[in-house]
Batch of 3 targets.
Target 1
Amino acid sequence: MSVTAAEGGFRALWRRPRYPGFVMTVSLARTTGFMFNTAGVLLVLQRTGSAPLAGVTAAAAVVPSALTGPILGAWLDVAHRRRVLIVLDQLLSVAGLMGIVVLAGHAPNWTIPAVAVIYSLTRPFSMGSFFSALAEIAGPELLDHASAIEATSLNLAVIIGPVLAGALSGIIGPASTVELQAALTVLVAGLVAVNPAFEARPPERAPTMRGALRTGLHALWRERVLRATSVSSSLAAFGWGLMLVGFPLYAVQMLHSPAHTSGYLWAAVAGGSILGTFALHGPPGLRRIGLSYGVLGLSALLWSLAGTLVAGILLIGLTGFLEGPAYSGTIALRQRLTPPAGRAQVMTTLASINALTLSAGSVIGGAIQDPQTLIVVFVAINLVAAAAATTRRSLA
């Protein structure tokens, strides 16, 4: 695809009815959600001084959605009013956030991850709606362009959310930052409630939840590309999960910077990935995805050479840049190959798998507590992800 053709496609996408308001609301929702990765962890670390508890809390903020994802995704495929379910999810997230602020440091440690469960219990309602409505709003001719913007939206959320959370945590404290996240989440709920774009769905619909569940799981079982991207992306998510606790430790022990600067490291990952999505743009395929995982994993070996925050940001940004083709390519292939009648179910199931591996990474990262060891594990995991994307024998 030529640069001119690509630019024309993105302009056409932006002129698509309902698309601008949809993508702006989704981006705000994601940015707000990613604030917790930094502010929530810093709040627990500040009030309890326990890295393992911070890791368990981060896991508790994603595991419930992984367990409920397949069923709630099937519900979305047959629900008549998706916006009600999205608003419910956002308001439950507010309750979970405020519960963490109240309990952290003032109640038994086990109550913190317990209330974090509320934060993500119904998250698949939002995630599934965001992914499944996109294909209908963009249309098949602009779906690859929309997938690139989707990857950019996710990456911008990873940049702005942690940077905002990290900066505000250093100025007003982690607790006030989590309270601000709760306020922004209320705003998102209001924007969703008044925007009919979130009701977009394909004409092909499963008649029952059981039918949607069967359609989605059958597609995951039969379609090799969906299986391959599921395995590779879940492994990659495990690697990044290590860094939920690993980046604050890396910032303090190896970059000689405050723990809250870990937000800038997440921003470097996402910013690099955005650049890589467009600079390394090409037709999505499993070989490109596997190559991307392989080289980004090896690039993490350079992180140990950084002795300052600026150097760490640059080297981690390089890793993010090399991730661009894997991230956007995975989204594009899933949007193309998922059956419309089970799109929400498939997307939430895949997101659930990633959430489980991300949370497992955060728990292990909190247990290891050594940034050098975490870097080595990160490299190894991404090399396995590269093999999973490109090896037919293990997936066919």
Target 2
Amino acid sequence: MTNMKIGIVSYGLYFPKEFETAEDVAAKAGLTVQEVMALGIKRKCLPSQDDQPVTMAVKAVGEAFQRAGGVQPADVDVVIWTGEEYKDYIAQTASIRLQEETGCRNAWAFDLVGQGVTSIQGLRVARDLMIGDEDVNTVLLAGGTRNVDLVDYGNSDTHFLLASSASGGAILLRRGLGRNRLMATAFAVDEDMADEVFVPGGGTEIPFSHGNLDSDVMFYRTPRPAVVRNYFDKCWTRALSGVAQQVLSGLVPDYLALRHLTPADRIAVLDHLAVGPGQSATLDNWGCHGTNDVILSLDMGLKSGAIRDGSHVVVVSGGIGFTYAAALIRWGAA
């Protein structure tokens, strides 16, 4: 990366007011409470009809601007949707609606799709836009997720997705900012796993029709469950740790903003990176928010005091596809 200073001005989060407990999930999934807890679920957010992806993202953006110390919507040059692909409408360019509803009238906008790592992709794209175009000084990343709608609680092959939840998240970045500096990013994919987890219905191969709207084509499916289970057992935590190590280059982080994981997987990643439990928040009380997990963990680290001025913070995430991303942020004043 170049020596250009690009920093996080502020961030915002929004969560639905209601929650599902481990007991609720267990009853729906036909599992014991202990089995649900082993998936990293004590409770998780439960969206209402009003909690749509763009709507939640707009609320998160509002919080980000409240914290922004004078940066206004009119200052934003680019709006990037960093939420999930599943959003309010099929084939919708959510970033443009987000731009409209947040008052970023002077910006242009586009959507990114990263399956759980889009916030980190957005950091990299924002950085590259600022380097490549001197007219881009302020970038807004924002998105919502409610992939919980796509999870069939009764399908034992996709119980690893039961933690799916709902939220909105936003990050505001600016060129020349002397704090919260983005230092490095890294990415990896496992192309052999590209078609192992997906929702079959609603695409061009299996369009929605009167005959399939109430069928399992509306939910996540794993064509080869044994392959996915083996992948999680042997490759998942190693890949997450590996992409984090790329941005660390031997540095031990002060805080790890890590995506939602099972307790066993979380311990494995912390051990690989020599990070203590107090240096990374567990998301067991929140569920999995995909691309917003790292923003939530960052917020928890700041509120707990685990992140202070000068802290080296690594944000790490991964998603189905399978795809992985990490970013190194030097928190606080330069």
Target 3
Amino acid sequence: MLITGGAGFIGGNFIHYTLKNHPEYKLIVLDKLTYAGNLRTLWSALGDISFVQGDICDRELVDLLVSKSDVIVHFAAESHNDNSLNNPWPFIQTNLVGTATLLEAVRRYDKRFHHISTDEVYGDLPIKSQEKFGEKTRYNPSSPYSSTKAGSDLLVKAWIRSFGIRATLSNCSNNYGPYQHVEKFIPRQITEILEGRKPRVYGTGAQIRDWIHVDDHNSAVHAILKKGRIGELYLIGANGEQNNLTIVQTILELMGHDKNDFEHVNDRPGHDQRYAIDSSKLRRELKWKPHYTNIREGLVATIKWYQENEDWWKPQKAATEQKYKQGGF
């Protein structure tokens, strides 16, 4: 199995999950090691994997690695909305050109391919609605990040239809858990508290996200690899809808602080209001279900990990906060 973006958050956790639960796979890991890739995420696994530092836009390298693989799981992506607003070009290059490079190699060697994507390709939903995203929801991205991920999804679908590649896709809701970069919402709040500062909430904090623990996401990906129908899209979610304000207040409470000990900051431009995933197809067809059905349980485990692994996240923290400050957030 070739895993792209394996030194990132979800990809790194996928590697640990696969080594523990699916030892039948021999893993090749390709990662460019940008700021979001951290080889320390894989330190305990380096003896059990083949790691290659490289770019998914490198045609010769991708061709070589795909030719040696039976299955390709494509996590590699530029994925931070705020960064895409400041500079869209890395998102266009990695998410579009990189995915096309992989698809052409997959087509050439007739390999099994699974594409990891996001619910943000669907845009957002009204906060007070009961509607959820489904496999037939129209794409309506609202940022350079989500639009390039939507474009990568469409490339995969086109290669399935036009060239008959053996591929599946999944769009997942917001992940959280260990090894997540401190630029992201939940680890940023946790590490701000650990460093003695107040968490920050965009606008009113009314925006709703559908949270899923990264291990549940990765168990779903394995279910799709094993039992998913070629050419199909599956939405992955754990019915974890919570607004941003509630998440921050829950983290504060779990870490022994007053739940109102946070600051409001100006809202992010184009901030999506609500995400909600209907994962009934995945559950019905593949008999998948999440382990973490209570967000508090997952947050307790996540907080504990960041408390115990300061040496992993500390080197990222100062530069991340400086970048937020420069962006006015």
